Amino acid sequence: MEETIKFDGCVIEWAVSSSGCQFLDAFIFKESGKLHWKPFVKTGNNRERVPWVSNHPLDVKRGVYIGELSRLAVLCSTKEIYIGAIRDLNALYLMRGYPENLVMSWCKKNIQERWEKRFALRVAEHDESILVLKTRFDQVWNWFSAAELGKTVTEYWSAWYEHAEKGLYSADSSRPLIKPDPNYVHDLDDVRPELFTQILVDGETEFVPDLRKIGLLGSRWIVSRKRNTNLFDLANVWKKTVFRKLDEDIAEKGGVVPETQNVNETYHSALVEAAEQISIESDNEIILHRRSISQEREHPEFGRISKSYNR
Residue 121: left (phi > 0), alpha (psi -120 to 50), or beta? Predict the structure, then answer.
């Protein structure tokens, strides 16, 4: 095998262990003449989990924990190994600030079920498609049922098609149906012909897209939540904006050239300022070898600031 598989510029180290080996997230080993496996943690893995202080809703945190139970159940060959892995998981969650009573409650309710169903094939309860409602974390969703909303909306759509095909929009005065407005097509001009249905509007025939033919009326509605925007997100947006602006300036102006100081002009200004500080009362009194202020006075890092200097 070592002589067969070769790649240019790549060195493959072949190692064989008589006790065990790692494969993805599992460590496979031999014990008492049997093959077993257990979870494998790569060296340097910080094993991050959603901390208790995060703004994630409680049901999301619980779902993440139960998902870990299912993952560990598959990665353990025996129940003893599984229990040891769950103890390690519980300790990890306690280190992340989770209340012990809450973690133990989640564990007791799900540990046995996750183990028994670790290899069970999941049969979909619904063969229809899924319609996802995109939203953010908010406690209001704790008292909102996406299934009830979906049922209300799809039942209205179904009733609308039944009445529209007969032109009976006002059959129920307590719940009149809205007639289609030809001025609002909502970019539905490219619908395939077989997906249209024929309805009656004021005695005339019109064609509208039929949601029943694409399975939308039978879709199961679920809510997909994501975390809210925080200060770090805004800082990242600001950082990306700054870098993008710099890239645009470099592309348009050929780079940012720093301004250079005119040394001659600065030196000349310093000479003029020094000359103005020299007081000459007459042409006969010319001060020679006038000493400037010591560096030790202006720059304390060169010596003591209290050191006297001569003029």
Answer: beta
Who contacts 33 (Cβ-Cβ below 8 Å, separation ≥6)?
A: none
pLDDT at 191: 72
3-state secondary structure of 43: coil
Nearest to 179 by CA among 204, 154, 143, 196: 204
Other CB atoms closer than 10 Å to residue 113's CB: what's the count? 13
Q: What is the mean pLDDT of residues 38-43?
A: 84
Torsion-angle region of residue 2: left (phi > 0), alpha (psi -120 to 50) or beta? alpha
Chain position carrying tokens 């209290």: 306
Mean predicted confidence (pLDDT) in 89-113: 92
* CA dist., res. 237 & res. 144, Å (int): 32
Give the CA-trace dihedral at 97, 99, 104, 107, to 10 degrees.
Answer: -50
Long-range contacts of 118-121 (CB under 8 A, 24+ apart): 118/70, 118/73, 118/74, 119/74
| Residue 303 to residues 158, 247, 297, 307, Cα–Cα distance (Å) | 91, 46, 8, 8
DSSP letter for 118, please: T
Grouping H, G, I as helix, E, B as strand and the rest as coil, residue 58 is helix
- CA-CA distance, 147 to 143, in Å (whole number)? 12
Domain ranges of the chain: 20-116, 146-224, 263-302
Structure confidence at residue 135 (pLDDT): 82
Cα–Cα distance, 58 to 2 (Å, whole number)? 51
Q: In what order do the strands lie in the sheet with 20-23?
A: 20-23, 26-31, 34-39
Q: Using alpha carbons, select from 122, 105, 38 the residue that is nearest to residue 65.
A: 105
Q: CA angle 50-56-61, nearest 5°?
A: 55
